[in-house]
Amino acid sequence: MARRKKIYEGKAKILYEGPEPGTIVQYFKDDATAFNAQKKAVIEGKGVLNNRLSEFFMTGLAAIGVPTHFIKRLNMREQLVRQVEIIPLEVIVRNFAAGSMAKRLGMEEGTQLPRPIVEFSYKNDALGDPLVPEEYIVAFGWASQQDLDDIVAIALRVNDFLSGVMHGVGIRLVDFKIEIGRIWDNDYMRLVVADEISPDSCRLWDIETGQKLDKDVFRQDLGNLTDAYTEVARRLGVLPSNVTHAHKPKLIN
């Protein structure tokens, strides 16, 4: 394979120039980070699982009319996506109190919220991705008020889809975060779901037992992260139900 030009390397993925203008190859790494990269590890098989799971979610969203940057999966660790201009915000949707929200408000983890709550944080690792109000976003030109209204609508549609899919396999969608990008078709701008949707970016609890099946397993040293992600993939049918592994997942291409 010809040597590809690396465009960007983040904590969990590497982006390369795509085969055609306007495309990017997104490579999923096995690296795991937590607490703003203060805790790091390499979790064998994690990137393969997240690639397959993100493909599953992005394809499902497209099927219900939610636009995404996803084009197709290329292999076990890579997918082809559209090049987008990322809005410098993490869009967080919360259905139950957990993580930083529970700490901020003194709420018991797992408390159901009266309705889904959408929050925004400014994407800046050096600042710890601080929460920002809509006033800041509009004032600093990160997004217009119309963009924000559209982003909230997209986020709530993603929430409805993910909540339903997860509930169907006995998993509670506690919260999740997505990124939104802009794509231009001539003079027309569209907002699309970008980056990834995986257990790295969601809180997922077993409905019956409360077992955590997301990156909190790594954050809180609750067990093997690959086992947790494999369980999510198995329930969703992304992996065959008879897959077992002692050290790393055995996956099909």
Task: Tell me what the structure shows.
- The chain has 253 residues and is α+β, with helices and mostly antiparallel strands.
- It folds into 2 domains: 6-84 and 225-236, Phosphorylase Kinase, domain 1; 85-206, D-amino Acid Aminotransferase, Chain A, domain 1 (2-Layer Sandwich).
- The chain has 6 helices and 13 strands.
- It has helices at 46-63, 99-105, 134-139, 145-167, 216-219, 225-236; strands at 6-9, 13-17, 23-28, 31-34, 39-42, 70-73, 78-82, 85-86, 89-96, 112-122, 171-185, 188-194, 202-206.
- The strands form 3 sheets. Strands 8, 9, 10, 11, 12 and 13 form a 6-stranded antiparallel beta sheet that branches. The chain has a 5-stranded antiparallel beta sheet with strand order 1-2-3-7-6.
- A hairpin with a 5-residue loop joins strand 2 and strand 3 (23-28).
- Helix 1 runs parallel beside helix 6 (225-236).
- The chain is globular and about 50 Å long.
- The two termini are 19 Å apart.
